[in-house]
Amino acid sequence: MVTELTEANFQRTLQAAKVPVLVDFSASWCQPCKALAPTIDKVASEYKSKLDVYKVDIEKAPESAEAYGIISVPTCIFFKDGKQVESFTGNADLRTVKAHVDRVLAR
Questions:
Q1: Which of 14, 21, 22, 33 is catalytic?
Q2: From 30, 36, 65, 70, the catalytic residue
Q3: Which contacts (CB < 8 Å, 24+ apart) does range 89-96 have?
Q4: What H or E segment, with its residue span, contains residue 79?
Q5: For the whole prediction, is pTM greater than 0.70?
Q6: Residuewise pLDDT in 10s, the chain (107 residues)
Q7: Among 55, 85, 86, 93, which has the minimal tally of Cβ within 10 Å of its Cβ?
Q8: Is 30 one of the annotated active-site residues of the chain?
Q9: Can 33 be counted among the known catalytic residues?
Q10: What is the rounded distance in angstroms from the CA atom of residue 12 to the CA atom of residue 32?
């Protein structure tokens, strides 16, 4: 459900977005990332036409992770008009993630 971005399409995808974007920076070995994944999937489906949701594996796209100062995973960053507007780190419940989404959409 959530598309994985690569170094090759990361910036282009952000710039082309017509709606705000949530990028989940994670890693395959990260247990909190695995715990957060179903929540991110649920947000992606609930906000389908209002929010684009992607994931980035920091080991497959280290330059993108470094560009945004990712030092721990999971880290979720929200972008609007190609600019970072909000973020959170660590596993979060659905209500918390939706609160972040709602704030971003209200901007």
A1: 33
A2: 30
A3: 90/32, 91/32, 91/35, 91/36, 92/36, 92/39, 93/39, 94/39, 94/42, 94/43
A4: strand 75-80
A5: yes
A6: 799 999 999 999 999 999 999 999 999 999 999 999 999 999 999 999 999 999 999 999 999 999 999 999 999 999 999 999 999 999 999 999 999 999 999 99
A7: 93
A8: yes
A9: yes
A10: 28
